Amino acid sequence: MLPAGHSINANYGHHVSAQEETVPLLGTRPQRRSSPGASFGFSVFNLMNAIMGSGILGLSYAMASTGIIGFSILLLLVALLAAYSIHLLLCLCLHTAVTSYEDLGLLAFGSPGKILVASTILVQNIGAMSSYLFIVKSELPAAIAGFLADDHTGVWYLDGRWLLIITAVCIVLPLALLPKIGFLGYTSSLSFFFMVYFAIVVVIKKWSIPCPLPQNHTLMYTEISNSSECKPKLFEFSRESAFALPTMAFSFLCHTSVLPIYCELRSPSKSRMQNVANLGISLSFLIYFISALFGYLTFYDKVESELLQGYSRFLPRDVMIITVRLFILLAVLLTVPLIHFPARKALMMMFFANQQFSYLRHIVVTLALNIVIVLLAIFVPDIRNVFGVVGSTTSTCLLFVFPGIFYLKLSFEDFLSRQKFGACGLVVLGICIGACSLTLITMNWAYNE
Question: Does this model's pTM top 0.85?
Answer without folding.
Answer: no
